[in-house]
Amino acid sequence: MEDPALRSLLGKVERERGLLLSSYKQPCLRRRLAVRMRARGVHSYGDYASLLDRAPEEYELLLDALTINVTKFFRNPEAWAVVRERVLEPRLRSAGRLAIWSAGCASGEEPYSLALLCAAAGETGGLAARVRIDATDLDPGALARLRGASYAAAAVEEVPPALRARFFSAGPPYVLDGAVARLVHPRLHDLTQERAPRRPYQLIVCRNVVIYFDRATQERLFSAFADALTPGGHLWLGKVETLFGPARQRFELVEPRERLFRLP
Ligand SMILES: C[S@@+](CC[C@H](N)C(=O)[O-])C[C@H]1O[C@@H](n2cnc3c(N)ncnc32)[C@H](O)[C@@H]1O
Q1: pTM for the complete prediction?
Q2: Distance 88 CA to ligand 1 centre (A)
Q3: How many CB atoms lie within 10 A of CB 177?
Q4: What is the mean pLDDT of residues 138-146?
Q5: pLDDT at res. 119
Q6: Which residue's CA lies nearest to atom 13 of ligand 1?
Q7: N or C: which end of the chain has fewer CB within 10 A?
Q8: What average pLDDT does the segment 244-260 reach?
């Protein structure tokens, strides 16, 4: 990193809040910092660092600016159809447990869409013993919304009508059925930190998250995902994301358009 004032600001945020901002792509990071600096009327990274000391609530606002939580149920419906047919339904037809990790889950629409498809494929009664969906994000506010499981009309517009009628309250707000919501286990987790996930997964979903990270961080994460999957496990990335680095050799490409990969 060329700019010493920026480097020192990032070092401060990391020391004081444990946020590894240096893992984010620089142009993206600079844009978001510029938004916050404009909002507070400061013109240099040094002044912004002093502001963080004077007004520590600014840390939360910086985090909000960095974590873009845009999401909805069944975002990119055509990709969901592929994952339902190629991953979820075959897994649920066979005996055995299904462990899924939704990494960068925002306010829950993505892990709950997975839970809805699992519930639709079987009886909800015994499902909790078989299906576990870990949902992690860096943003506590997003996880609080996930726990509420209550959504506005725009969030649920891609939910197939039969699923909406069966598993949501009449809305708005649309409140998700408790048995479906309980399949999802939220946890605060920063993907840029070197910490292995707890269990092996059959499916890892990480969509529209790694795009913000620099190349080295993405490569490290892809290898961590490969390590965290069982043989035959799937990795599903966002439409604009590319799998590269050493981990690329470990995966087979299942569906190029939908960025679906599989370990042999
Ligand atoms: C655009 S949303 C994607 C939500 C969902 N995966 C989807 O595709 O609809 C990106 C999410 O990544 C989260 N995020 C950003 N940096 C992160 C990090 N270092 N660790 C974990 N989550 C992060 C943000 O808080 C945000 O909720």
Answers
A1: 0.89
A2: 22
A3: 18
A4: 93
A5: 93
A6: 104
A7: C
A8: 96
